[in-house]
């Protein structure tokens, strides 16, 4: 199907980067890996910048292939989207996240949130919201414990339809987060239309927030100030150093996620963190 828009173009580019052989090979390996249940979900902590308390995690899919080795989601997610494998893979990720979250809640008394990345291909599926509800019910998950992460690219086609789906998700009690803010054609006007709880500032801003980064600093500071005034949560992504952490705290950005506070890790390693209260 031919669609228009920047998202389709960048998808086209990343898909073209893999040659045909690689694509076919990777697609068949992906299907095989999914059927055998060999994908994994890692979790990266999201931490209160002031108290250091653990607030939640972002779920990130991992693929360690027996033949191809480690393959980054930046490489295989575009292929999974193009081939529609993302729909079954996304279902598996959501089910796995809910199963793990249910056990953290019952066995460890975990009360934080888990954010799940949702591809536009998944979100625009007719039965997406019903599937969400079924999976939450299956594991008895409080909808407020799940945060759906989308990027602004999701709004490029079918703007009204997407806003309607997001409103349904919001009414179900789930949280909604706008990822990678500051890349692409980020516009503050989205804040009027998307029923947002959280805005995630892209790591390209955080990378330049200290050294020689007057512009990145000023933009981040202004965005955080505005988003705080609107009563939404802001997460600084990709915080790697103490210097970045200090700036983030000073400008009142309440949540951090990055290698400085914790790398993505398997569920079992996160359990230790939950037990120790972050
Ligand atoms: P994202 O949603 O922006 O995820 C954040 C990425 O930043 C992750 O890369 C994470 O490992 C990385 N990261 C975290 N802290 C730091 C840091 O301090 N420094 C640096 N340099 N990087 C950091 P990852 O896991 O390779 O994922 C890449 C992208 O693939 C994600 O970007 C997301 O767009 C996509 N993705 C990952 N998991 C899923 C998934 O389960 N479903 C879907 N649809 N997409 C996913
Ligand atoms: Ca994300
Ligand atoms: Ca991001
Ligand atoms: Ca990203």
UniProtKB/TrEMBL annotation:
Residues 23-278 form the EAL domain. It comes from the Bacteria. Transmembrane segments: none annotated. This is EAL domain-containing protein. It comes from Teretinema zuelzerae. The lineage of its organism: Bacteria, Pseudomonadati, Spirochaetota, Spirochaetia, Spirochaetales. The chain holds residues 316 to 593 of 599 of the full protein.
């Amino acid at each position: 199907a031919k669609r228009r828009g920047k998202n389709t173009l960048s998808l086209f580019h990343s898909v073209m980067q893999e040659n045909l052989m690689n694509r076919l090979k990777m697609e068949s390996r992906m299907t095989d890996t999914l059927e055998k249940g060999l994908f994994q979900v890692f979790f990266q902590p999201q931490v209160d910048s002031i108290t250091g308390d653990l607030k939640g995690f972002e779920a990130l899919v991992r693929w360690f292939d027996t033949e191809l080795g480690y393959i980054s989601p930046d490489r295989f997610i575009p292929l999974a989207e193009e081939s529609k494998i993302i729909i079954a893979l996304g279902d598996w990720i959501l089910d796995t996240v809910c199963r793990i979250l249910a056990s953290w809640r019952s066995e460890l008394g975990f009360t934080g949130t888990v954010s799940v990345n949702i591809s536009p291909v998944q979100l625009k599926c007719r039965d997406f919201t019903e599937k969400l509800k079924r999976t939450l019910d299956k594991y008895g998950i409080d909808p407020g414990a799940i945060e759906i992460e989308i990027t602004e690219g999701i709004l490029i086609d079918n703007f009204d339809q997407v806003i309607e789906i997001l409103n349904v998700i919001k009414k179900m009690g789930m949280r909604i987060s706008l990822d990678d803010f500051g890349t692409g054609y980020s516009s503050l006007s989205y804040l009027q239309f998307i029923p947002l709880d959280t805005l995630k500032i892209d790591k390209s801003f955080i990378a330049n927030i200290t050294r020689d980064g007057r512009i990145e600093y000023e933009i981040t500071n202004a965005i955080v100030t505005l988003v705080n005034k609107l009563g939404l949560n802001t997460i600084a992504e990709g915080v790697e150093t103490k210097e970045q952490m200090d700036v983030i705290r000073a400008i009142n950005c309440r949540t951090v996620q990055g290698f400085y506070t914790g790398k993505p890790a398997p569920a079992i390693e996160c359990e230790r963190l939950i037990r120790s209260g972050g």
